């Protein structure tokens, strides 16, 4: 990881994970020192270089940048750039916008994320999900699409400044795995149509499956052959790299050189396959035999840098105000920014887990938000993290977020000068790159792990996995909701261990809060108060670190009920903060001891 390591609010210290999984400590990060420092000291801390590092993660990894990383970042950035251009053109059509708007949206994220991002793998840009959501709310209107990018970015940046990134910590590991597996299957199968050379296939997953098989007779042989060759070559090179034994110092120079050559070719396999396929497609077209489906011609020219319009003028001269546009967006102002954040954070968490580093959710929020704000100045529509291109970036061996600069430059060059070069890229070759990149993310072994360790975690995993085939955003939201309900259930139904020592001893394993009061009341009534005869109880609270007013009010009633039945209720092991609350409530007949044994002694003596 190359920025602040925590996934929530900044801690007092942070670290940076360099390639090779080497964790190096960084300087302490400023934290709140309320009551221990003066206002001037706190202001000086807020303006320090350490705070600047917190907001600009590039300052943590750039001083440690190595020349060997540059080679890998260049290769990864170029490969992702070659993947981004045709995808951006396609996603613009999904959004119902002119194709150049896809490229306008594809380069700003690379530059912004290099400075602000905390994941080495994530690439920001247009995606299928955001494009479909935009199509639902902008109706193919470029002016509204650009304005939507500005508003989404403002909302996301506000979330980051208010430190609301902790909300995204409720995306549990089963949800991330369910999303990752479903998205990998969706993206991988979505490329089958390009391998087969099929056109006009619906984007909705189930329709896509149906029409892909239904239209197999329309398969283009050239695309199939080229796509399969690219797949075979990519798989072979990947296998060669994974089985390559590192040479020792005793090996001859030629042996070490051969090892380096094979390793280099295998590492740049994505770029090599795309370039080779492009050359093949160009050669066939030059001889008058266009047998491959290629990217085709696109518009040329850089977008102007200007403030996004806050109103719209229709062709008949009617002016639509900012307020009216906001009203037309309606629920999209909640759905699109939050889905963009959820998708990007889920992707970042998935690849951070896979590559052994951590991200900072608030910083990711800030990077996405600022990308959308600045993107609106170059006519971009809302963007988020791209699963497919992030997978390509990771598989190609990117070392730092600087690979995004190369990707951004490739997109800018393609807008300005290189459209003829991209014209001949076969879609089948790009499909092969993406399929090979996402295939390892279909982790079937995780199902067995959930089954062996905790079967209940299969519920959010399966709900996320299955709903994601309908709509990815529904899968993520469904998984988060189910995980949240499971979490709330544990809060409302804390585990209570009951032991009988002549007197009942009930041990609570967590804090007491208002959802759990009814359950605690029920257990005490059924086990003690309604027993014949009624039983005294020692409530072991050494795990309880918080109580609220609802709990205190319920305890007041319980103490009264125990007194009416002539039995005792004693609290043992109360932490100071909890005891302070109970004493402040002035509960009648409150008795507490430091240990369970002391409470048992008191109750045993009172029953004799």
From TrEMBL:
**What subcellular locations does the record give?**
Apical cell membrane; Basolateral cell membrane; Lysosome membrane
The catalysed reaction is: sulfate(in) + H(+)(in) = sulfate(out) + H(+)(out); oxalate(in) + chloride(out) = oxalate(out) + chloride(in); hydrogencarbonate(in) + chloride(out) = hydrogencarbonate(out) + chloride(in)
Q: Is Nucleotide-binding one of the keywords UniProt gives this record?
A: no
List GO terms (cellular component aspect): apical plasma membrane; basolateral plasma membrane; lysosomal membrane
Q: Which UniProt keywords apply?
A: Anion exchange, Cell membrane, Ion transport, Lysosome, Membrane, Transmembrane, Transmembrane helix, Transport
In the bilayer, the protein is annotated as:
Multi-pass membrane protein
Question: What GO molecular function terms would the record report?
Answer: antiporter activity; monoatomic anion transmembrane transporter activity; secondary active sulfate transmembrane transporter activity
Q: Which CDD domains match?
A: STAS_SulP_like_sulfate_transporter
Instruction: Report the residue ranges that make up the STAS domain in this protein.
Output: 502-608
A Pfam family of the record is Sulfate_transp
Q: Where would you say this protein principally sits, based on its record?
A: membrane
Q: Which PROSITE patterns match?
A: SLC26A, STAS
Residue stretches spanning the membrane = 74-92, 98-116, 146-168, 261-284, 329-352, 364-383, 403-423, 430-452, 472-492
Domain of life (superkingdom): Eukaryota
State the family it belongs to: Belongs to the SLC26A/SulP transporter (TC 2.A.53) family.
Q: What does this protein do?
A: Sodium-independent anion exchanger mediating bicarbonate, chloride, sulfate and oxalate transport. Exhibits sodium-independent sulfate anion transporter activity that may cooperate with SLC26A2 to mediate DIDS-sensitive sulfate uptake into high endothelial venules endothelial cells (HEVEC). In the kidney, mediates chloride-bicarbonate exchange, facilitating V-ATPase-mediated acid secretion. May function as a chloride channel, playing an important role in moderating chloride homeostasis and neuronal activity in the cerebellum.
What is the name of the protein in this document?
A: Sodium-independent sulfate anion transporter
Q: Which organism is it from?
A: Oncorhynchus mykiss
